[in-house]
Design goal:
Layout (H helix, E strand, L loop, with lengths): L20 H6 L2 E2 L7 E2 L4 H10 L13 H22 L6 H12 L4 E3 L4 E3 L3 H17 L7 E3 L8 E3 L12 H22 L1
Antiparallel strand pairs: 1-2, 3-4, 5-6
């Protein structure tokens, strides 16, 4: 897909299971509730890789990301996380977070181009972040917000849009946390049966 190599550590692979660009971007920091959160964008190259894998790279080319853009992206990511969590809880978001997100969303975003569908932008990294910020603004101001959930695995903190028919999804994905919960439940039941 790109000339950007995947990370050697599988824990740094990007989970694109949130159902929305903003939720996928927030997932670039994993295990938020643990003592050792997983920073999936430790450097500019990783953020460039995220833009490409998220299909937010202008012209499908790897995005050049500066150290400043990386720092700004992380600040925006955390503001987006706090915005979504506050909105999920029915609380008013922090004014500083709203200001930062509105500022990012007001920047020129990626412009779609006809032909083979592609994006274009003068400042690709900033445009991709503007696109993500706009997605968050649209999400928290829509009825879809009621379908955003946090994975029930205590070691996971991924947010996702529950698009299941019954709206009973509990895990970020069955392949990740759902299977871990099933295995843990099976082992617990097996131990309980053995001790009886």
């Amino acid at each position: 897909m790109t000339g950007i190599p995947a990370p050697a550590d599988p824990a740094l692979a990007f989970p694109f299971i949130g159902g929305r660009p903003c939720l996928n971007f927030v997932a670039t920091l994993g295990r938020r509730h643990t003592d050792t959160p997983a920073e999936r964008i430790p450097d500019a190259a990783a953020l460039a890789r995220w833009f490409t894998e998220a299909e937010l790279a202008a012209d499908g080319e790897p995005v050049r990301v500066t150290a400043r853009e990386l720092a700004d992206a992380r600040v925006l990511r955390e503001a987006l996380y706090r915005l979504v969590r506050a909105s999920m809880a029915g609380r008013e978001p922090e004014p500083a977070d709203m200001e930062l997100i509105n500022e990012a969303a007001a920047r020129p975003d990626l412009a779609p181009q006809l032909g083979p569908v592609r994006w274009t932008a003068r400042q690709p990294a900033r445009a991709a972040l503007a696109t993500v910020a706009r997605d968050a603004v649209l999400l928290v101001s829509s009825p879809l917000l009621a379908r955003v959930k946090e994975c029930e695995n205590p070691g996971c903190s991924l947010l996702f849009l529950d698009d299941s028919q019954a709206r009973r999804r509990r895990w970020c994905s069955m392949e990740r946390c759902g299977n871990l919960a099933k295995v843990a439940g099976y082992r617990s039941r097996s131990r309980a049966a053995t001790t009886r």
